[in-house]
Amino acid sequence: MSNVCREIITLQLGHYSNFVGTHWWNLQDASLSYDPDTSQGEIQSDVLFREGQTLGGHVTHTPRLIAMDLKGSLRTLRQEGSLYDASEEASAVTWEGSLMMHEETPAEKNPFLEDLDRLDRGQTLAEDDLCSQPRRSAAAVSLDVNSQLARLQKAYRLEGSVRVWSDFLRLHLHPRSISVIHQFNHDGEAHRLEAFGQGEALLQGPVLEQLEDKLHFFVEECDYLQGFQVLCDLANGFAGLGSKVTEMLQDSYGGRGILTWGLAPVSHPDSTPMRELYHQLNCTLGTVSMASHSSFFCPLTLRGGLGRRPSAPPAFPYLNYDPSLWYHSSSVLALALDALTLPYRLHRDSVPMWQMADSLAVSGRKVVAAYGAVPLPMMQGSSLPDALTACTEALPWKPLSACPEPDNGRLYGQWATLKGYEGQRLTSSLAPGTRPPTPLHSLNRGEDVLEYYIRTFYPSSPLALQLVSSPSKLTPPFPRIFTPSLGAQGFLQSQPPPRGSPAPVVSSAPVMTSLQSSTSLGSWLAEMHRGASTLDICRVAPSFLSQGPEMADYREALEELRLLSRCYRDDSMIHSSSEESDDY
Question: DML1/Misato tubulin domain location, by residue (predicted)?
């Protein structure tokens, strides 16, 4: 059964989740091989992609994806897509009365989308825009958009033109993938999906019927469905919708894995003090509710905290990114998510979603925290022991869940992944008789090197490891957020580029991530509970509960959150102070 394809269905709920999901799917598409002779790599793409056929007989590969967003969020993207269009035929007009025409100016496409349109029409891009690799026949190129995009060297600067996630979507979606919620607007002040209760109330009537129809379509064509990965906005009303969706998945598909990632941007462009308060309450209710209905729940954000006064976003030493730009912050999270989700997407030694979740969510501790080194600093031509030896004072990863790492606390479980070290040595290559400079240099397997290193920080904690050499391919339109000290493969260069010469375009990067269950999460959840329970919600935000939940349900959710935080207590530290015991 190790080579059986265990399919996954992905749900993306909300605009920022679709930003992260779009970057994540672009990464998957860039690594997808259409050649059966070369498709048996480390990562099993069929876990995520379904094979279909156009009306013209061409084979297609589209994501098993359901993406939900609000009215006005698609701009130039057609909800039904364009992959399976029938040939256009003139329709007979039978209406004989008067007609009134309303002309609407279509949204302008950015240069990247214009190039995609050219490729879809069978045109080839200018040779100056493509790197020098062997060319295929014009017919083959016209059918394989991915082959040209992979060689595309245009310096797209989309920071000023990306308004919605479809502005940088590089692959075709299935006609059943996109679901637009017409009751709420993406833009403007009226009819906004701002509160948890609004989202909860959505999953009924046409929205529920449409979701069930799409789920049945994707589920019924799966032979070995292992579960669902849910990306859900945490700071707006989609948190309420996500709570109902995960509850429905739990009731309808019991025994399948449900891994839920709660997404939150660093900032919102139209935020106000009242909206910040709503964001805090949505995050609180969404966390406790989605955690209870999922195999595990992991917040993903570069925000310094989920309260109203967060600390600064994490600084990655080799990234020049703008945390306030959703196009940038979502790319960092997507690159980390590509590594975090690897264990259940591999050809060999794949771990089912439920097994991965069970190793982390023990004794009711269903909330986990993510950390990532994006990228992991590795010198070109060096070895993994050399790279890790340079990080002996502190682990190289940064918080990706607004939760600090355990400081002398307990780690209940950890899943660490190293991805993208292709071309580098996993062990030292010392000459015979040479004394190893560190214990890491004496080990004979990459897994042993990484395990020894992590255990110097967490000696007795449960640990699972996954090492995959294949890197994430950073083809356009991934933003150019890397510092000039990195080479084309994302490794550190011994010499900086000559003055005046352009920095190399980073086309891949090594990434190391960690999913953890630790005592730090107990403190983090307790602080979340404290922040919400000290609010007089009826006085400061009476409209928040106007569409639900009821006050009794709200108080019950806060009590569930308090009890959840206590699951992470380290029994050896329970009696540290009576005050902490009351809150924690």
Answer: 161-346
